[in-house]
Amino acid sequence: GDSGKKRWHHYHVEEANRLFSLWGS
Fold first, then answer.
1. How far is the C-alpha of 23 from the C-alpha of 17, rounded, in Å?
2. How far is CA 7 from the centre of its chain?
3. Origin, by domain of life (predicted)?
4. Which pTM was predicted?
């Protein structure tokens, strides 16, 4: 359903932010 898609998107956004913060240091 739609909620599953939103949770998937949120997970990938959080992962991307974490990786970018590692690269930025």
1. 10
2. 9
3. Eukaryota
4. 0.45
